[in-house]
């Protein structure tokens, strides 16, 4: 079985809770909101755009503004949590997320909405790594932490799947504003409960903060996510795409140079000597790439091709989400029996099989015969993969770097999501355009384009399984 070393040092080493499983449920609730908000807006975009006067290009920034801020600031957020206290930074991030969500729901102009989405992403970048760090300290025992991380990984997967479901239900019944307002009461519960459930943590060393490292890595990640988003919006060879990609490379190189020379680096490069942490982040990047592209394509396919409304589209995700929940609860026991590495590889194989099956869905697909089976397989694979990958990503991490580990795995998921949507979305779009130009009817052309996308996500899952093979033996 994979050994997950209990933290012994760092600002949160003294964090305690007499009701730690209840505390875990509250932390997981906050993480659920963070993951959910990356996708819940998708179905509401058409109505939102009509009411706020936003064209297609502007609407894409409703998603991009959140992802840019979230993905770009995660590593800094993790380090701030290690430095100033995990509970403190978690509460600051949650408060900012609640305020930004309310602001987004109140938006009357596109600029107001985009600003609120960027603030949501920045707040999530503080919340997410701090929450995972708190979890690792609340459960120092290997067996208990395996169960806790099973819940955590399951929540991450459920949040991705539930975005389409809740987005459809809320936007169809309560209006587009409700996809933002739903965060407010839930976030308020988190803000009230956590101080009651988790003791105040101590702070880390107050030495000089690695400002050059923070600036270069944040700039590199923002430029990278921006370049990937620009591929979808303006094309691979557009000057904006090329410029952002070049800036990301230059800033990334500068970051490595800074980290090698500074006495107190933002991201100690030695952390990547931990093989399971490195493999876990690579796998999470690939899973994020497959899942974001999948849920985007499913949402469009159900509505544009099969003619489902927003509510029906959301409800079709129930079997996938249900399978994921069930498997996430079972996986910790499976890991204890056969080990993390075999569990992860098997889960990714099931995921790839479900995605290949889904690629055969026709333009006149019936849900029960063509969509239900693949959805269940995908849910099973996702449940196992998210739980196990999260465990690998914090394997052997000491207390003083638990926030960093949380920032790394969340960054991998966000960068992977942007990469998958840009690359696989472009492939699907090019295939659809080619078929339309040759005279193929729109439903069949769109379906075939998405078939290529689903096959692409299956290939990514296979690559993730290959990467998982390099994990340390469990």
From TrEMBL:
The keyword Protein biosynthesis is assigned to this record: no
SUPFAM superfamilies the record matches: MFS general substrate transporter
Major localization class: membrane
Protein name: MFS transporter
Gene3D superfamilies named among the record's database cross-references: MFS general substrate transporter like domains, Multidrug resistance protein D
Subcellular location: Cell membrane
Keyword list, A-Z: Cell membrane, Membrane, Transmembrane, Transmembrane helix, Transport
Transmembrane portions of the chain: 21-45, 57-77, 89-113, 119-139, 151-174, 180-199, 211-231, 237-258, 279-302, 314-335, 342-360, 372-394, 415-432, 452-471
Membrane topology according to the record: Multi-pass membrane protein
PANTHER family in alphabetical order: BLR6921 PROTEIN (PTHR42718:SF46), MAJOR FACILITATOR SUPERFAMILY MULTIDRUG TRANSPORTER MFSC (PTHR42718)
Domain Major facilitator superfamily (MFS) profile: 23-474
Organism: Microbacterium ureisolvens
One family name in Pfam for this protein: MFS_1
Transport found in the keyword field: yes
């Amino acid at each position: 079985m994979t050994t997950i070393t209990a933290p012994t040092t760092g600002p949160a080493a003294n964090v305690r809770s007499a009701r730690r499983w209840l505390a875990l449920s509250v932390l997981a609730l906050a993480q659920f909101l963070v993951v959910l908000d990356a996708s819940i807006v998708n179905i509401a975009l058409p109505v939102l755009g009509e009411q706020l006067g936003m064209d297609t290009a502007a609407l894409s920034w409703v998603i991009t503004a959140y992802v840019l801020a979230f993905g770009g600031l995660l590593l800094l957020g993790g380090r701030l949590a290690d430095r100033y206290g995990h509970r403190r930074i978690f509460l600051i991030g949650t408060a900012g997320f609640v305020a930004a969500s309310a602001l987004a729901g109140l938006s009357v102009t596109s600029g107001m909405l985009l600003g609120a989405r960027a603030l949501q992403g920045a707040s999530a970048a503080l919340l997410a790594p701090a929450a995972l760090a708190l979890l690792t300290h609340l459960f120092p025992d290997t067996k208990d932490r395996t169960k806790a991380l099973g819940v955590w990984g399951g929540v991450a997967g459920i949040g991705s799947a539930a975005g389409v479901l809740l987005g459809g239900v809320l936007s169809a019944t309560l209006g587009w504003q409700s996809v933002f307002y739903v965060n407010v009461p839930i976030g308020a519960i988190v803000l009230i409960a956590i101080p009651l459930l988790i003791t105040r943590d101590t702070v880390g060393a107050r030495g000089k903060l690695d400002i050059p490292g923070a600036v270069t890595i944040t700039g590199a990640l923002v430029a990278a996510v921006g370049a990937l988003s620009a591929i979808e919006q303006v094309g691979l060879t557009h000057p904006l795409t090329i410029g952002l990609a070049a800036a990301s490379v230059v800033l990334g190189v500068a970051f490595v140079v800074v980290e090698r020379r500074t006495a107190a680096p933002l991201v100690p490069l030695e952390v990547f000597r931990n093989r399971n942490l490195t493999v876990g982040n690579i796998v999470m990047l690939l899973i994020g790439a497959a899942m974001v592209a999948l849920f985007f394509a499913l949402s469009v396919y159900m509505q544009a091709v099969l003619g489902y409304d927003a509510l029906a589209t959301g409800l079709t995700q129930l079997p996938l989400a249900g399978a994921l929940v069930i498997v996430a609860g079972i996986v910790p026991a499976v890991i204890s029996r056969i080990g993390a590495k075999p569990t992860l590889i098997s889960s990714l194989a099931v995921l790839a099989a479900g995605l290949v099956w889904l690629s055969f869905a026709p333009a006149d697909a019936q849900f029960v015969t063509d969509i239900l089976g693949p959805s269940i397989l995908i849910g099973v694979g996702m449940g196992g993969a998210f739980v196990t990958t999260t465990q690998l990503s914090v394997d052997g991490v000491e207390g003083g770097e638990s926030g960093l580990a949380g920032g790394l795995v969340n960054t991998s998921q966000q960068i992977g999501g942007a990469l998958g949507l840009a690359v696989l979305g472009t492939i699907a779009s090019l295939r659809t355009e080619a078929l339309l130009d040759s005279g193929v009817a729109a439903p069949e052309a769109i379906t075939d384009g998405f078939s290529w996308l689903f096959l692409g996500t299956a290939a990514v899952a296979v690559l993730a399984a290959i990467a998982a093979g390099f994990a340390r033996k469990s």
